[in-house]
Amino acid sequence: MNRLLLWILAFSCSLVIVFSGCRSITPSVSYYVMNPLTDASMSPVDADDNRSKTVGVNPIELPGYLNRVQMVKRTGPNQLDVSSRHRWADYPDRMIQRVLGDNLQILMADARVYSAPWPAGLKPDVTVDVTFLELIGTTDKKMLLSATWTIIGNGDPLPPHRTSLSETIIGAGFDDLAAAYSRALEILSRDVAESLRAAVE
User: Fold this and answer.
1) What percentage of the chain has pLDDT greater than the value 70?
2) Would you state the pLDDT for residue 12?
3) Which domain holds residue 160?
4) Most buried residue, 49, 87, 93, 151, by CB count within 10 Å?
5) How many C-beta atoms lie closer than 10 Å to residue 173's C-beta?
6) What is residue 24's predicted lDDT score, i.e. its pLDDT?
7) Is residue 2 in some structural domain?
């Protein structure tokens, strides 16, 4: 009888645990994107115009710990905070390449800008390679960007450039962090566009 009673109690406890787990609520996940610049005085080049120069944006290189859908913050010199509930809507390298290409197209109204892979048979007049050494927000509301970029034309690559910045993140939410990424990429895009204009003239 004692064994039967113990078995019944154990079975009842198991049922309670199972049903409690079924009723638990999975925390919701929020998704974020990076956006291109939205200067009202500028507009993307019409796809049917006759721009003669072409610019290609090669795939972006990011440190592995940043190229993940979970959003990452730096909490100290040697420590990161990886969020499971706040995520990018796409892998950051693809999103950054797309935003950089859109920004350059807006900033360079006299050229066509394509992000790799470009259409079959197209050979851009110049291409740009961007490698990020750092692109991360910190818990003390700083957005850190450090990137090297190289322009390659028909001849030898031009000397590499480097853009480094530290911008204040306005607000404490992850939406504020995503907005800071977009602003940092706009600054980088303007640096790249300035050099590209000289390269395609």
Assistant:
1) 79
2) 61
3) 31-200
4) 151
5) 13
6) 55
7) no
